[in-house]
Amino acid sequence: MPSLQEELFPSTPGKFKIDRAHSMNRQFHRCFASTSTMFLWALFLIALTASYLSFQSFVDSGSKYFTASWGGLQWEKQVRVSSQIRRSGGMSVLVTGAAGFVGTHVSLALKRRGDGVVGLDNFNNYYDPSLKKARRALLDSHGIFVVEGDINDGRMLEKLFDIVAFTHVMHLAAQAGVRYAMENPNSYVHSNIAGLVSLLEACKSANPQPSVVWASSSSVYGLNEKVPFSESDRTDQPASLYAATKKAGEEITHTYNHIYGLSITGLRFFTVYGPWGRPDMAYFSFTRNILQGKPIKIYRGKNRVDLARDFTYIDDIVKGCLGSLDTSGKSTGSGGKKRGPAPYRIFNLGNTSPVTVPTLVSILERYLKTKAKRNLVDMPGNGDVPFTHANISLARSELGYKPTTDLQTGLKKFVRWYLSYYGYNHGKPVN
Predict the structure, then answer these.
(1) Residue 41 CB-density burial (10 A; 0-12 exposed, 13-18 middle, 19+ buried)
(2) Which residues cross the membrane (predicted)?
(3) 180 in catalytic set
């Protein structure tokens, strides 16, 4: 009598007879049992997967909570203390990009005169983060708390406005640099457009709404050949993605002013330089390479024309920023609803005295007591423009803006700081 195993797995397939009725009945029961079992297994796997995802979500949420660089009672206390106003008629200002070049100087100037200041910076690695951390230490020594966070973090911004009723926002956070846009264009959209919108959303929803002053750029003048550049000149021919994002920012801020009643002031900076500056700027990298005996690359425009910039010393820029805050006027919205027209202004902040790049190098050579190894090359198509020159008559009349530092004086102060910060001169004065 054949065994069950022999019946199910015959040694010679196809050479035996089948009782079809019995076989079909048996296969039906097996199929039903198999389907039921698979269904139960499927339910079990779904439940197991759901449990895992729920647990993972909990772990991720908890991890974010415990590792977040903002939030908590101590953090809130630091924000409140830093925002305290210590002068009559003072203001409470949120400064974005506070660990940046201009942000550090503006924050210190506000704090010195008794205003409340809370900083915000993401400490990205576009240039050496250690310089940003050194600036933060400087701010901390003056009682200014800098929140580490991204301008696109809407929850964090909402929390800050819940803790402090900021009267003003000084928006200086941005992805800077013209040439870097060719390497990482998305960073400009993330910071200069999406970040700006995130901030404006927080400002328009705040009650009361703050007045907003923000950093545009002289780069918006782009391929405009009319000089000096005036605020009424065309700005629809950007020469770089950086310039395009700043131009977009001007249009976006106008929209928020029109719809939500936010008081907006845009500042078109012209080549800011000075102590604690940005290492990606030409004067900074020239100084480093000259001291290290490395050649420096000096670009020339068409027909070998020297490039020229309206170099503006940081202290003069700070005066323009504070003047803009002081005269900004109030926002007219409340909780995102406009109740009337609000000020919308744009100003040039420059020095009105363009200087060629070779002249800049000659001044640095004198203060560094070292000859530069100059390498003259034609300017590539990377978005740079051949010259900048600011007309500041509007800022002079509306803000009382009056730059007082020429390039020689400003570079002397910069070199003194540079040698001291990087330990080149061991305290010896710069002549």
Answers:
(1) exposed
(2) 31-55
(3) no
